């Protein structure tokens, strides 16, 4: 294998290779190991070499977070509010905090969240932004995130988050879509039990199609009987033939659905290309508080994957009224999902949910290690995937690493 350089002692997860059979190296658990062979600034493969001292993988992708809300918990607690009573209580507590959302405050908190993702090595981050005021005027948090996004070492996608009943108002979905389109925005909505959710969904799909936007829904974020938002989204996608990316988040109610009904819905999701983001941290904290023993509140991700649904993992809330703890780090979220959703070893099989599959759910081409540019990859100072998910130090870029030139 000809080369212009090597990086010695590398492990590469098999699940993050497009053609592992052609990549070379030695199989070690769920990785291929050896010296990473480079041709210019791109990865060519592995050759036999040193024992692994670092793991190389694509930059992780964050599919679902709320940078407008993050790092507000201490102020909320200081106000005398005690979040933790469930989803609706958290919504009310966070809404009260918006009185403090000045330009200075938004820039400070959003900037802190973006810095968290930079440390985690994120390649792309999708953040929802609450649409607090009626009408199509861009909220201050949207402008703050847009201002800060251009200076980041990763791509930032912004999703407008409206109540689905709000989008049912004549002309409003189209007006919001028109307002966010210049920023490459995503049209999003919160779908729970609102009376006009069917009309809102039809308007959202029509507006996204007209303006060439992706769709992103918070849906069925609860364990109450009768939640049908995801079923309505699937039905609307089937009826409209919408071709853009559709990502749904939460889907907690799916955990209570009978197996046969779940299988039928999952097969329809797979046919329409609807992806689901499972969000373990916030859903574990808020859901199932009234029952003993408590249901975990997580969508049945393994069953959905078995039926062909693209399932990804997101971080959701960090240190706000919805979750007082948390970290802006997709690998931390995957580690939590492994505990909460019984994700068995080998752990490498789950890495696509925060890398290749996550990018696809965001409407981006997946990045695999084979053929990748060094700028799209990271090196972690660990020798195995279990080490990676147990608590690896922050990743490093590969470009500055010393490479040995060969003839």
Written description of the protein model:
The protein is α/β, with parallel strands linked by helices and 407 residues long. It folds into two domains: 5-58 and 367-397, Urease, subunit C, domain 1 (Roll), CATH 2.30.40; 61-361, Metal-dependent hydrolases (TIM Barrel), CATH 3.20.20. Helices cover 33% and strands 20% of the residues. The protein has 14 helices and 15 strands. It has helices spanning 73-78, 87-97, 103-120, 140-149, 164-167, 172-180, 197-211, 229-240, 259-272, 280-286, 301-306, 330-340, 356-361, 385-391; strands at residues 5-13, 26-28, 31-39, 42-47, 54-58, 61-65, 124-130, 155-163, 186-191, 215-219, 246-250, 274-278, 311-313, 377-380, 396-397. It has an eight-stranded parallel beta sheet. Strands 1, 2, 3, 4, 5, 14 and 15 form a seven-stranded mixed beta sheet that branches. α3 packs across α4. The radius of gyration is 21 Å and the shape is globular. The model is unreliable at 400-407 (pLDDT under 50).
């Amino acid at each position: 294998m000809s080369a212009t350089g090597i990086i010695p002692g590398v492990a590469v997860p098999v699940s993050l290779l497009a053609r592992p059979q052609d990549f070379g190296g030695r199989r070690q658990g769920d990785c291929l190991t050896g010296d990473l062979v480079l041709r210019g600034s791109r990865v060519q493969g592995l050759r036999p070499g040193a024992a692994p001292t670092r793991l190389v993988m694509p930059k992780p992708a964050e599919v679902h977070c709320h940078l407008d809300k993050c790092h507000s918990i201490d102020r909320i607690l200081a106000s005398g509010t005690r979040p933790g009573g469930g989803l609706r209580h958290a919504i009310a507590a966070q809404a009260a905090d918006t009185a403090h959302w000045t330009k200075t405050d938004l820039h400070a908190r959003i900037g802190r969240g973006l810095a968290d993702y930079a440390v985690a090595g994120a390649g792309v981050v999708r953040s929802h932004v609450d649409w607090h005021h009626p009408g199509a005027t861009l909220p201050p948090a949207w402008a703050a995130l847009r201002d800060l996004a251009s200076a980041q070492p990763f791509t930032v996608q912004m999703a407008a988050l409206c109540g689905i009943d709000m989008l049912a108002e004549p002309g409003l979905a189209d007006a919001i879509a028109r307002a966010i389109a210049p920023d490459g925005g995503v049209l999003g909505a919160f779908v729970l039990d609102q009376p006009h959710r069917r009309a809102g969904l039809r308007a959202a799909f029509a507006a996204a199609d007209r303006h060439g936007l992706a769709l992103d829904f918070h849906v069925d974020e609860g364990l109450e009987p009768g939640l049908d938002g995801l079923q309505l989204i699937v039905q609307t996608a089937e009826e409209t033939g919408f071709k853009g990316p559709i990502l749904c988040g939460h889907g907690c109610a799916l955990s209570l659905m009978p197996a046969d009904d779940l299988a039928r819905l999952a097969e329809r999701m797979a046919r329409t290309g609807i992806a689901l983001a499972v969000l373990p941290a916030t859903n574990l904290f808020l859901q199932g508080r009234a029952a003993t023993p408590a249901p975990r509140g997580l969508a049945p991700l393994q069953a959905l994957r078995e039926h062909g649904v693209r399932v990804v993992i997101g971080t959701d809330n960090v240190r706000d009224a919805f979750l007082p703890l948390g970290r802006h780090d997709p690998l931390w979220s995957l580690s939590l999902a492994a505990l909460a959703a019984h994700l068995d070893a080998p752990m490498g099989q789950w890495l696509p949910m925060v890398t290749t599959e996550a990018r696809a759910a965001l409407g981006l081409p997946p990045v695999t290690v084979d053929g990748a540019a060094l700028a799209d990859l990271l090196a972690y100072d660990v020798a195995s995937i279990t080490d990676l998910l147990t608590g690896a130090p922050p990743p490093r870029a590969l470009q500055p690493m010393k490479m040995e030139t060969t003839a």
